[in-house]
Amino acid sequence: MAWDELGDQGLTIVREVLKPDFADQLLKEVDRAKQRLETLQSSELYRANPVLRSAAHTGFLVALNHLFCAPEVFLNGALLDASRTYLGDDFYMFEYDVQIALSRGQQSQVAHADAYRSHPLRPTGLVWTIALTDTGPWNGMTEFARGSLAEHVRDPVGVAGAGQWWQPELKAGDVLVRDLSLIHRGTPNPSEEDRYLLAVVMVPRDYPFDPTLQQWLDAALWADLDHGRREMLRMHRLTDNAKERIFPNYPSRDQLFSPR
Ligand SMILES: O=C(O)CCC(=O)C(=O)O
Question: Which domains are seen in the chain, by residue range?
Fold first, then answer.
C-alpha cells in the first residue's frame, strides 16, 4: 500500500493524478510566468535560498489562480487522503512553487531537508511534487535519500550517507508525495529543455507560517472556492490580479544573501 511506503521510506508516487492535457496546460502557464519574470528582469524574484543556491537550479512562487489551484490539483482524493492521514485533518498550504532544473546544467544542489522534525513521530509537512513533463535521470529529476527523515541531521554536511539515493522516473501528471524532512538534492539536467516541477507544500495547523512565503491569491478564485480549498489556502493574501503581481513579502536578493 502506497501510504505504508510513505511511512517507511518518506515518499511514494501517485500515478496519473493529472491528465496529460491538463499537465500540459500547467506547463504552458509556468512557461509564460517564467518569461514574464524574465521580461521584468527581476532576477531577485527567483527563489534564491543561499543553502540551495546552485547555478543549475532555480524556481519561483506561483500566482494562486484558477489554473494552479484547480480541483484536479487540490481536490484529488489520493493526495487529500495521504495528507489527512499524515498531517491530521487540519492542514494548510505553506508554499506553492515551480522548481526548475535549468537545461545543460552541471551542478547538483547540496543535499538538504526542507524542514527538520522536532520529534521522530511528528511529521513537519508533505510535499506534492507534480511532474509537468516526463522526468528522470535524463532531465535532472530530483534525487531522494529514501528513509532519511531528518530528525537529527541539522546540517547538510554529512547528510549524503543518510539513506539510499534514488532518482525516480515520473510521467507528466504523476505526483511524488514526500515528507518535508526527507533529504534530497536537485541534480544536473543534461537535456536541452528546462525541467519544471510544481511543488505544493502542506503543513499541519500548528506549523508556524513564514510570512516571506505569502503568495497572492486571486480574489476571483477565492469567490469561487469551495470550503476545502479555502481552508488550505487560508494563509495567502487576496488581490484583484494575482497574475500580474509577484510576491507580497518576498525578501530581496540582498536580504537573502546578507550575512546574519
Ligand atoms: O529542482 C529540484 O530538482 C529540487 C529542488 C528542491 O527540492 C529544493 O529546492 O528544495
Answer: 2-239 (2.60.120.620)
